[in-house]
Design goal:
The radius of gyration is 23 Å and the shape is globular. It has a domain at 35-277: Cytochrome Bc1 Complex, Chain C. The protein has helices at residues 11-27, 47-66, 76-85, 90-117, 126-149, 153-168, 186-216, 240-264, 290-318, 330-352; strands at 35-36, 238-239. It is mainly alpha-helical and 361 residues long. It has a two-stranded antiparallel sheet with strand order 1-2. It contains 10 helices and 2 strands. It is 62% helix and 1% strand. Bound molecules: protoporphyrin IX containing FE. The site of protoporphyrin IX containing FE (HEM) has 26 residues, from α2, α4, α5 and α7.
Length: 361
């Protein structure tokens, strides 16, 4: 929004206004001040933006880490040790990357829960729900490949799971096995996935996600919903520029939290991994699948994760009523709550149990 520089304003204010006007004239920034509903600027509707801010932190810290990391299996673990012990601020940057990744998974899951609870996946936002699921899958793929890269025992075991799942998928899973090519080690290919393929796919889906939010507007609150018809966008009494400012503010808080965690609890690194041994458990976001792997083996892991995503993908297509209020959507809310409880119980069980060998190798 342009600021008027009249006689009642001070000189620094006038200078700021002139600077802003000059910038606005060239970049058209005031176009970002379009109306949005007031509820779009509450914390629960900012979780997607906070997640996006987290991804920017991950990108910057990731580029710094890449200057010291060597994706060759013979040197990978040593290069992480070098990064922690010798590279300037290496330990802190690595820990900041680690903690931000964990927090981004938390904010993405909270964002999904908000979208689910407010029925924001309903017509006309079904495709954006599916794009969101794609973003969640990519986020988990980032965590998975990142775990392998450190090449300690946890990383070597994660890679062994990756290979066995690839073999189970046959031709479809060929890329995930060592047989795909003999010229580049699978660790190097997963690194390439972590730093090029996944960021490219993420950027593409984020652009599609944001485009649809701009086109469709943010979903209304149940209380504002008309008595019938598909959920439309609420009235715009706030501004998108306020949304951006709040998103940056909460994003900086996320950064401060990750920075504090990084200072007091640096990211762990185990001994160089030994192939064939199975003594670790997966990172917390994969824990719900661990007991299923205990019972059904690697197939259990693969099928349960596919089943979870299929169930989530079906949500907008089975809950087709126009109602947003949880009271008018009792059965889907109940189904969501049961699923969440089951995932928490499975994760709790896995957390308390001892590591069990699952792999065939
Ligand atoms: C993981 C990365 C993700 C990012 C960076 C992201 C980003 C965003 C942003 C910035 C918004 C605007 C409103 C808000 O912040 O609440 C939004 C809305 C939305 N997101 Fe996401 N999102 C992600 C994941 C997901 C997931 C996992 C889902 C669900 C499966 C999802 C579904 C949606 C839908 C349906 C909307 C429209 C909500 C409405 O109109 O109220 N997103 N997302």
């Amino acid at each position: 929004m342009a600021i008027n520089a009249d006689a009642s304003t001070s000189r620094p204010q006038r200078r700021r206004a002139t600077f802003w006007d000059a910038l606005d004239e060239r970049l058209g920034l005031s176009a970002l001040s379009y109306p949005v509903p007031a509820h779009a600027n509450t914390i629960s509707y900012l979780l997607g933006g906070i997640t996006l801010f987290g991804f920017i932190v991950l990108f910057v810290t990731g580029v710094l880490l890449a200057q010291f990391y060597n994706p060759n299996p013979a040197s990978a673990h040593d290069s992480v040790v070098y990064l922690i012990t010798r590279a300037p601020f290496g330990d802190f940057i690595r820990s900041l990357h680690f903690w931000t990744a964990n927090l981004v998974v938390v904010t993405a899951l909270l964002h999904l829960t908000r979208v689910f609870a407010t029925g924001s996946y309903k017509r006309p936002r079904e495709i954006n729900w599916l794009i969101g699921l794609g973003l969640l899958a990519l986020t988990l793929a980032f965590v998975f490949t990142g775990t392998v890269l450190k090449w300690d025992q946890e990383g070597v075991e994660a890679l062994a799971h990756n290979r066995e799942m690839g073999e189970l998928l046959g031709l479809w899973g060929m890329w995930f096995t060592s047989e795909f090519t003999r010229s580049v080690p699978i660790l190097t290919r997963l690194y390439i996935g972590h730093v090029t393929l996944l960021p490219a796919a993420l950027t593409f889906l984020v652009i599609a996600h944001l485009y649809l939010i701009k086109q469709l507007g943010i979903s209304p609150r149940a209380a504002e919903q008309a008595t019938s018809g598909p959920p439309a966008s609420g009235p715009g009494v706030s501004r998108f520029s306020v949304h951006l400012r709040k998103m940056t503010g909460y994003g900086l808080l996320l950064l401060a939290l990750a920075g504090t965690l990084a200072l007091f609890w640096p990211a762990a690194l185990g001994q160089a991994g030994v192939a064939g041994a199975e003594v670790t458990k997966p990172p917390w976001m994969f824990l719900p699948f661990y007991p299923l792997e205990d019972v059904f083996g690697i197939q259990g892991l693969l099928l349960s994760s596919i089943a979870l995503f299929v169930l989530l993908a079906l949500v907008p297509f089975v809950d087709r009523s126009p109602w947003l209020s949880p009271r008018q959507r009792r059965w889907i809310i109940l189904a969501g709550a049961i699923l969440l409880l089951a995932l928490i119980v499975l994760a709790g069980y896995a957390w308390l149990s001892r590591p069990v060998p699952h792999l065939m190798e």
